[in-house]
Amino acid sequence: MIKKLSARQNEKSLKALMPAVGETVSVQFQVPRKRFTLKLLGFKENGSVILSAPKGSVNTLNLEGARLTATLMAGNRRCAFVSRLLKANPSPYPHWHLAYPETVEYHRVRTHPRIPVNLAVSIDHQDEVQAAKLGMPRILHTQDISLSGISVDASSALGQVGDKYFLTLRFQVNAMDQVILLPAVLRTIENVEPGVMLHGLEFESLEEETQLLITAFVYQQYLSELGYLEDE
Q1: Is residue 216 part of a domain?
Q2: Key word Amino-acid biosynthesis present in the record (predicted)?
Q3: Among 66, 18, 6, which residue's Cα sits nearest to residue 42?
Q4: Fewer Cβ within 10 Å of end Cβ, the chain: N or C?
Q5: Cα separation, 64 vs 97, whole angstroms
């Protein structure tokens, strides 16, 4: 049974949704109860869906024929479909063939989803004089992140709305460390509780590589929040 995606679900064919090769796919078997995080290698309409096989010495031959639910992203749509494992092939490289689904249920993810995340961030004012006055750079912590910005809390205001900053952020994408520099502008300041000021910063003028890393990290955290990137 497919995990409920939303109150209102939509259906399309996998070909119409066109998920990208290399997309992360969460595969959940009910009997036996197993979960795997794999990669989409391709698909053939009315044929099969090809996924990478689990790494290591995991014996999956006993799963052939078993029903499963697969979940993955296609653009800004989160998709799920019911299938079964047709064949677990060890050569010429380890891969799986899933039965091609008749339909895929999907729902749109907000363009800029806010994902709760606690990361250390170094923040520095782009104006050196203001940076010196405010005692920057400072190491603070994030509350959430989206494709377009980030929320940071501090004990006092970091400046004025409209001020510009450089944020240095370190995180992992697919278990690989990434350190990026993010130009940002302060959009909001909110006193959420005594001694805690929440600052909403919007990214601006991001380089393409940086934007791709932010996108990968946000969707990785999104899937993790939903439980699709848990270890088996």
Answers
A1: yes
A2: no
A3: 18
A4: N
A5: 9
